[in-house]
Protein: FMN dependent NADH:quinone oxidoreductase
Amino acid sequence: MKILHLISSPRGEASFSIKLGNAIVEKLQEANPGNTLTVHDLTNTPFPHLEEVHINSFFTPKENHTAELTAAIKHSDEAIAELEDSDVIVIGVPMYNFGIASTLKAWIDHIARAGKTFRYSENGPKGLVKNKKVYLAISSGGVYSEGPMKPYDFTESYLRAVLGFMGMTDVTVYRAEGVSVPGLKDLALDKAIESIAI
Ligand SMILES: Cc1cc2nc3c(=O)[nH]c(=O)nc-3n(C[C@H](O)[C@H](O)[C@H](O)COP(=O)(O)O)c2cc1C
Structure:
């Protein structure tokens, strides 16, 4: 089994989403000895925002690619190959302004490609990335799994939608939440780690 751990917090050892992601990876490794792990820190070498050249490269058949278009699609091809090569994807998700970090969004913009990871058919869109298990390790200052702030969480709903669109429908969510809330913050990570069922 090949595990891919994507990191999108720039906070290194202080990051709750990284710690929670690491705990998920550890449990996966305990349950499945002999698996391989690739850690991809999206904050070290961020994917570029989509510019005209990237879009042109996505929609131009490969045989017609210029050197510029070939260079522009390299990130996307590599990210899709890495994704396809993995069985389990653990995604660390710090909540920023009710949504995901832009580094993670940029990764999604490079992997969501018509004809590669999804396609349109007469019966609507079809996801082409199959047989993946996805774990989301979400960390947030407030509480969003229940209570008045629940409708403000655009991390889980967005990721379920966009990953599902590409065929990744088996998604389990763990949350270290309330990390800024007095009375909750001290136990938020421990509670999240205890909730991991693998
Ligand atoms: C730029 C920024 C925006 C944030 N926006 C929110 C937010 O909208 N809601 C929230 O509950 N917490 C918010 N937080 C708090 C983070 O979600 C929280 O600190 C989380 O643990 C960050 O993930 P990390 O520990 O993996 O870096 C924000 C933090 C930063 C730095």
Remarks:
- The longest helix spans residues 67-84.
